[in-house]
Amino acid sequence: MSNKFQRSSPQVLGAGVGVDASVVSSTASNQPRKRVKRCCRNFVTFMCTQVGVGALIVFYAICGALAFMNIEREYVDKTATYVLELRQNYSQRLWNITEELNLIDKPLWVNETNAVLREYQVQIAAIIKNGYVGRSPAQIWSFPAALMFCLSVITMIGYGNMVPRTPWGKGFTVIYATFGIPLYILYFLNMGRVLARSFKFLYRSMHDCTQERSYDARLEALENGSSLGALTLRKKIIVPSTACLWVIIFYVLTGTIMFANWEKWSFLNSFYFCMTSLCKIGFGDFVPGASLTTAADVDAATHKLREDISADPNEVSELQRITDQHSKLAINFIYMLLGMGLVAMCRNLMREEVRVKLKEMKEDAKLCVEDTRLRFVGCCGDPRDLYENDYY
Amino acid sequence: MSSRRSSFRRREKPAFARFKDHCRHFTAFMFSNVGIILLVTFYTIGGAFIFQAIEIFEYEKLKTDKPYRFHERNASGDCLSRIWELTAENISFYDRQAYRKRVNDVLLDYQRAVVKKQLLGPDVDHQWSFSGAFLYSLTVITTIGYGNITPSSDWGKLVTILYAIIGMPLFLLYLSNIGDVLAKSFKWIYSKVCLCRICPGVAKRRIIRERRKLRQLARALQLHNMESARGSSSTSYSSTSKSTTNSSSSTGSSDYTKSSVQTSSVLDVPYSDSDSDIEREIRGSTDEITVPLTVCVFVMVSYILSGAILFGRWEDWNYLDGSYFCFISLSSIGFGDLVPGDRVITVDKDKVEVSFILCAVYLLLGMALIAMCFNLMQEQVIHNMRAIKRGFKACFRCRSS
Predict the structure, then answer these.
(1) Which spans are transmembrane here (chain A) (predicted)?
(2) Out of B76, B107, B145, whose CB is closest to A158?
């Protein structure tokens, strides 16, 4: 970039009439341009680094949540009214049966009623298989839930506790995933790199602190100019995979305790949830926030608050509970994103370690083979053999 | 003595080498395409058996240990008796509205019970059939996780975690391996079929044409160079002294003629060659070919659409649902709102099996195909980037000169 400017300035110089004036003007015009360019470059690098990508992910998820809320709330759930109709219809039929068999004939009445109930059950079962849960879309698609849905789409977890029902929602999900997944992968790689670097730095500094004495010895060795110092220095940088595993295990255990406390799950279930989520499997048999209050409850509470500010403690606690749960969902969101980053970090570090180990192993093997050959030749024959063997 | 030993060693070495070769071949095979497919398949089948055994065993154990939990609360019988009570007490005062309202409430309770039971899913024996368990273990290692079948016992959950930890790297290995192989073969097919490399005549003619074009270009460039050189030399010389101009130009022209002869001979050498050289050229050029992005995208979209048609026929989904299912599955999201074999499970058992297996094959192949496409796209993008970089460099160089 700077070369270009150097190149361009002589052209201006040659073309200009007043030499001095042109030089001054060109530098004056270049200065803000340069600054703007630098600013742009800095901005782009910032956007491409961890913070920017993280912000982008959050922004994308929030936009997606709003869009899905808008799309899915449009969906007129006919099944709810249909179920109501069905029930009234069947109660009417039951009434008819009762009226018809006015004389109290219990076995016959039971037979008839049972048949009607069977029919009713079959119909309800068919409706449920089509995805009726008994809650209206407005209740299901509250903002935090939609946020969770977006996150589960772009991280490819896919809990499946809530799914788009409208054709538009399905199409939008596909498009959203097409753009979201590469973005998420970018985040994953970036976060992994940054976390790996910082973790390595942390590990190294801790290592230095704990091994002050050996450090001095190494310094001496370095001063002596032996290769030992360089060797140990190179070895020091690698973070062992056990440390990565400890980090992951610690993280998972934290999540286990957290979710077990919040969602009243058993520890095994909570652990299972954390593992399946971080492995991106996401069965959806345990989903945090499924026990959350629905949007209707929130609306009612806020309505109540708007009615009278002089709130009694009961109401305050109610609201407190709701806001608490919202913060829980936000923490959940952060837990997932951070966990994915940690997994990426461990992947990075472990890959590096494996690569270094493999290289070392190869070198060791080579040395070993050489050594054994030399020894074999040395003890069993004269060194001339060595040269002979080299021909083969 | 030394000769004897050397002969002895020569005799021993092949055996050792043979053994080593065998080992190497075996490991190479295990981690080659066929081996890895077999490994994944057997791992999945083994997982299916393990999960089936664990779940059914635990279920039976729970059933014998705590039978009260599995006491079938007869919802319909309950409802029936409640309605009977209502009717019996209602028979005295004959109020139709009240009666209907109360019956409605009872029915609502009944409906809730039915919903709850339906959401819990079918019973364990039905859920954990072999095909169900197979699909379950497949969704675990591919990280799709539909969630239509989930382990309910503690041991099942623990084994799932272990199974996933071992299985996921295996599957990633499968993906990278098969993706690589598919990418290579797809590139080969693309270069052979789409660019008409398959018939040697066309390829040869094309190469000859390209070479002729190149030669003409080189000639033109040379001419241009020569002219510019002559011009520059003439100007430089004219600025210094005019007396030496003629001699210098004559020497320059003689240089040029010599060099032109040389370069033309250099150019003629590859042109006037035999078929073997052209064949080598053809073979070399297949490595440089990159499949364009549009073809990759087209392959992915057509795979998803064909899956939509296939599943639409099997499961009576419409095309939107089918393609939605395929996309969600292949991107490993896996909501599980649409699952193959979900509807057929109550009707026909043989059909379910076929559908499950079809789904498994579709998923395994599709994920490898997507890995292939990403492989090719990455290559193409890198190639494009390099070309752009080169272009920029050339541009800057032009400007600087």
Answers:
(1) 43-68, 140-162, 174-196, 243-262, 329-350
(2) B145
